[in-house]
Amino acid sequence: MSLKHQKAVVIGGSGDIGVAICQNLLQEGVEKLFVLDVADLTEATRQQLQESNRGAAILFKHCDIANRSELLQILGDDIVKALGSIDILVNSAGIASSEIPDQVINVNLTGVINSSLLCLDLMSRSKGGKGGVIVNVASVAGLETIPFLPIYCASKHGVVSFSRSLGVPPIFASTGVKFVAICPGATRTKMFNHCMQIPIDIAGLQDMFDDYVKRFQAQSPDVVGKCVIRAITEGENGSAWICNEGVIVQHQFPQSLFL
Predict the structure, then answer these.
(1) Looking at per-residue confidence, does 198 or 33 come out higher?
(2) pLDDT in tens, 164-217
(3) Catalytic pick from 34, 148, 152, 209?
(4) d(CA 86, CA 210)
(5) Is 212 marked active-site?
(6) What letters, b where the CB count within 10 A reaches 16 and e where it falls short, cover 183-196?
(7) DSSP 3-state of 137
(8) Which residues contact 120 (CB under 8 A, 6 or more apart)?
(9) If you compute the radius of gyration of the chain from its CA atoms, what whole number of angstroms results?
(10) 3-state secondary structure at position 8
(11) Close Cβ partners of 209 (under 8 Å, ≥ 6 residues apart)
């Protein structure tokens, strides 16, 4: 699958991983990129992205993925007017702090569900769309348990299961939309640095946390960007891709009893 002349939306595209994803999409030929984020897309970052594809149009709008009405208005109105259609949606927004569990779930999971379902409707061939790809960035914490990040784990397990549940043959046959999940390991981002400093309040987990910090080598966000491209161009519908310590591989799940 070629990404030349494709139109992409990246939610959370101003963050470290989001910028890397945007760069890789542009390098692969995406001609129109719409970035949504609660954080500004700085002029320096915009110029950095433009260097990846001088002929591409790069657009930005503030959007809180946890605000459903704002999200739906922007996706269903502003982006449709600006792009005409969406070929690729990437949900890369995420937070890890569990001081307010509801906020973690709203950003990491509920927002992903809302944006995915709306874009599925917009992209669906059965409703006049062209089909496309929806990429949801989860985490290895969506495949494994990480006890010192229980709320984050719960949200990312939800993203993986949601993406796999919609990445099934009947939905693809009707809509032409492929779903894939991306599961990065430790990645050098501001959020990762914050996680390394969180207080461990649950008794017995400090040693486990210290061991985690020692054992895993954090990777560059660019590895995640490259993983997204491979998942879009090579990934099977409903697949999940791990990118950990610089290695990219498709995860193998047990055979489902319900498919």
Answers:
(1) 33
(2) 999 999 999 999 999 999 999 887 766 655 555 555 556 667 677 777 666 767
(3) 152
(4) 43
(5) no
(6) bbbbbebebbeebe
(7) strand
(8) 134, 166, 171, 175, 177
(9) 18
(10) strand
(11) 148, 200
Task: Return d(Cα 211, Cα 207) in angstroms, integer.
Answer: 6
Give the C-alpha separation, 187 to 250, whole Å: 18
Tokens 């992209």 correspond to 123
Q: Is residue 13 exposed (0-12), middle (13-18) or buried (19+ Cβ within 10 Å)? A: buried
Residue 96's pLDDT band, with cuts at 50, 70 and 90, is confident
Angle, vertex CA 218, rays to CA 215 and CA 221, nearest 5: 160
39 contacts 15 by C-beta, under 8 angstroms: yes
- According to the model, what pLDDT value does residue 72 have? 95
Give counts: helices (H), strands (E), the chain.
Answer: 11, 8
Residue 219 corresponds to which tokens in the numbers above?
């990777």
